[in-house]
Write a structure and sequence with these properties.
Blueprint (H helix, E strand, L loop, with lengths): L1 E5 L3 H10 L4 E5 L9 H11 L3 E4 L13 H22 L2 E7 L22 H16 L3 E6 L2 E2 L7 H11 L2 E5 L3 E2 L2 E2 H11 L9 E4 L6 E2 H14 L8 E5 L19 H7 L6 H16 L1
Helix pairs in contact: 1-6, 2-3, 3-4, 5-7, 7-9
C-alpha cells in the first residue's frame, strides 16, 4: 500500500514510523506540499498516486487564526476537500484529522460524532469547513476528531510548555474551567494504524479518538508536575494556581467542555483508548530519555 502522509508536526512525526509496517510511506512537508495552494495538492496527488492519504497537516495556531482567517480557511477548510476529490478520482481513501473545537462546549455530556457542531472561533470554523468539504466530495474518507493533543515530537504543546515553565518558575496560573481529554500522539497514531486494515465501505465516516478520562487544564498541569517530579525531571515549581478562562483572555474563544465520545471507534478497534494519565506517564518517560 502506498501512503501519502501530509504534515511534519507532532502527529505526523509519530505516525511515520508506525505506518512503515503497513506500507510504503511518502511523507511530505510544506516544502513539497503547501496546503494553502490547491495546485500543489493536485500535483503531489498526481505524482504519488497513493492508495491512502493521511492528512495530519493543519493550520493549528488557534489564536493566530483569528487574525489570519483566510490562510486558516485555505489550509483547514479548502485543502481537505481537494484531497478528498483527488482521492475519489483515483480510488484512494483519505484519513483526515479534525478537532473537538468544532463544538461550542455548552454540552455537559461527551459529544457524539452526530451531535450538532457550532465552532466558537476561526480555527474551529475552518476545521468544520474541512470536514464538510470532505463529506461533499464523496464517501471514501475517515475523519477522526481528536483533542488536547501532545507528543514528544513537534515544535511544542501543553506538556512541553508546562515542563519548561516548571523548570523556570515557582508559580504558574492555569485555566481550571475548560474540560477535555488530553491525548498522546502515540496512542492516536496507534489507533489510526489499527483502523487502516479495517477500512471499507462500511467503516468510512466520522470518528472521534482521545485518550480516556477527562480533566481541566489545571488538573492536567498538576498531573504533569506530579508525574515529571516522580521520574526526576528538574522542577522549580511550587504552586499551580487555578484560574478562570475570564482571567486568561485569548484572541480565540475556546469550548468550556469538549469531551468527545470514543464509543464508535472503540467498537471498531475492539478496545477503549488508554487513560490520559497513562499516556502522559509514557510520554514523560520518553521525554526524559531524550532529554538526558
Ligand atoms: N494539537 C492539538 O491540540 C490538536 C487538537 C485537536 C485536533 N488537532 C488536529 O490534529 C492534527 C495534527 O495536529 P498536530 O498537533 O500534529 O499539529 P502541529 O504539530 O501544529 O502540525 C501541523 C503541521 O501542519 C503543517 N502545516 C501548516 N500549514 C501548512 C501548509 N500551508 N502546508 C503544508 N503543511 C502545513 C505544519 O507545518 P510547519 O511545521 O512547516 O508549520 C505542521 O507540520 C491537525 O489536523 C489538528 O487540527 C490537534
Amino acid at each position: 500500500m502506498k501512503i501519502l502522509l501530509a504534515g511534519s508536526g507532532q502527529l505526523a512525526k509519530e505516525l511515520q514510523p508506525i505506518l512503515l509496517s503497513i506500507g510504503e510511506v511518502i511523507a511530505v512537508d510544506r516544502t513539497r506540499l503547501d496546503l494553502s495552494q490547491p495546485e500543489s495538492i493536485r500535483q503531489v496527488m498526481a505524482e504519488v498516486r497513493p492508495d491512502l492519504v493521511i492528512n495530519a497537516a493543519a493550520y493549528t495556531a488557534v489564536d493566530k487564526a483569528e487574525s489570519e482567517p483566510e490562510l486558516a480557511h485555505a489550509v483547514n477548510g479548502i485543502a481537505p476537500g481537494i484531497f478528498a476529490e483527488e482521492c475519489e478520482k483515483i480510488g484512494a481513501t483519505l484519513i483526515h484529522i479534525s478537532t473537538d473545537y468544532v463544538f461550542d462546549g455548552s454540552s455537559g455530556l461527551a459529544y457524539l460524532e452526530t451531535d450538532n457542531t457550532n465552532p466558537l472561533g476561526t480555527y474551529g470554523k475552518s476545521k468544520l469547513a474541512g470536514e464538510e468539504a470532505i463529506r461533499k466530495a464523496g464517501n471514501r474518507h475517515i475523519i477522526i476528531r481528536t483533542a488536547w493533543v501532545y507528543g514528544n515530537e513537534g515544535k511544542g504543546n501543553f506538556v512541553k510548555t508546562m515542563l519548561r515553565l516548571g523548570k523556570e518558575r515557582e508559580e504558574i496560573r492555569v485555566v481550571a474551567d475548560q474540560i477535555g481529554s488530553p491525548t498522546w500522539t502515540k496512542d492516536l497514531a496507534e489507533a489510526i494504524s489499527q483502523l487502516i486494515p479495517k477500512i471499507g465501505p462500511e467503516t468510512c465516516g466520522t470518528y472521534q479518538y482521545t485518550n480516556s478520562g477527562v480533566c481541566s487544564w489545571y488538573d492536567f498541569a498538576i498531573a504533569i508536575f506530579e508525574e515529571a517530579d516522580q521520574i526526576g525531571f528538574p522542577l522549580k515549581i511550587q504552586r499551580v494556581i487555578p484560574i478562570t478562562t475570564a482571567e486568561y483572555p485569548t484572541p480565540a474563544k475556546r469550548p468550556a467542555f469538549s469531551v468527545l465520545s470514543t464509543g464508535k471507534i472503540s467498537a471498531v478497534l475492539g478496545a477503549h483508548p488508554p487513560h490520559w494519565r497513562q499516556g502522559l506517564r509514557q510520554m514523560l518517560a520518553k521525554e526524559l530519555t531524550v532529554d538526558s
